[in-house]
Amino acid sequence: MEESALFKLNLFIKSYLNEKKSLNLSKNTLLTYSRVLNDFSEYYRGYYEELSLEKIDKAFILAFLDSKALSISSKSLYTTILKNFFLYLENHEYVILEGKKRLGDLQHKMTQKIPVALSASEYDTVLHYFEKESIKKKRAFYSYRNLFMMKLLVLTGIRASELLHVSVEDFSEVCSEEGRVIYKIKILGKGNKERYVYILKENLEKEFVFLQQHLKTLKTMTIDIKHPSNTTLMHSFLCITKEGRVLQRSELYVCVNAFLKGLGIQKRGIHMLRHSFGKQMVRKNINLSTIKDLMGHENIQTTMIYARSDEGSMIRAMV
Question: How far apart are CA 132 and CA 290, in angstroms?
Fold first, then answer.
């Protein structure tokens, strides 16, 4: 019995995702690809008996996108993934549908919005809190850990996924031209691309040293006294629970929002803090190319959005 078009599509999706996995794409990227293609397969389920894979065209894909009630940015993402998927099928001669000709002009124009970020005064409020908390002599584990995470998010602009993978081994020290000691932190970014971010040692040392010591305590506790050779050293990730489990993204989100709420700031979100870092770098007149490298942007056009003037900047310019 001939395989159904739906069965073939699902096999092709598995093959495509396996190829993407072999390219060492991040876990989040792979999950996004999988979600989009499985959504498309579920939609195609209602049409496969009357519509072969070769007959799928722009109109069918647009109908699928309209059925999802997506935002413009999500539609653009879905479109890019589907176009790449069908190009993959054609390159491997699984399906002949002249994808470049029939799907090439399928795109969704996105309006570029100024990202929500902390204002200059709100950013100063956060910095003041960091200074106040850092001079406290006695703090609990969660205070050290949360301050460590917030400082890295606010002062380096790293992404949530990047923060959760920061480990002790990623830290090294360099000196600035003025002789100040800087933590140089290796970050594994999108597409498993490495870059470095930098933060003054004095701004993070107490939290970093505390978490290092906590990890050593956890490793000591896991030693098998009767059979020392069975002891497995734990990981050295730093964004962990008191028991040593790496935080989940949702848990980090809760910590960030509680932190902002505690300071009386209405804005929310992990990525909002990343945008805040970008805006702060522009306020300090840092070269856009430097900001691009620090934030791990592929294209400087992404960085340019932080250089767009907001209403407050225009009013200050006139006053």
Answer: 30
Query: Sheet holding 194-200: strands in order across?
Result: 171-175, 181-188, 194-200
Angle at which helices 27-44 and 58-67 pack, to 10 degrees?
100
In the chain, where are the structural domains located? 5-103, 120-318
Instruction: Return d(Cα 314, Cα 319) in angstroms, integer.
Output: 9
Per-residue model confidence as pLDDT tens digits over 143-163 = 999 999 999 999 999 999 999
Q: What are phi and psi for residue 264, nearest 5 degrees?
A: 75, 20
For domain 120-318, give the fold: hpI Integrase; Chain A (1.10.443)
- pTM across the whole model: 0.68
Which residues have C-beta within 8 Å of that of residue 223, sequence separation ≥ 6?
Answer: 231
**b/e burial code for range 70-81 (CB count within 10 A of at least 16 → b):** beeeebbbbbeb
CA distance 135 to 171: 23
Architecture of domain 5-103: Orthogonal Bundle (1.10)
For 178-188, the pLDDT digits (tens) are 999 999 999 99
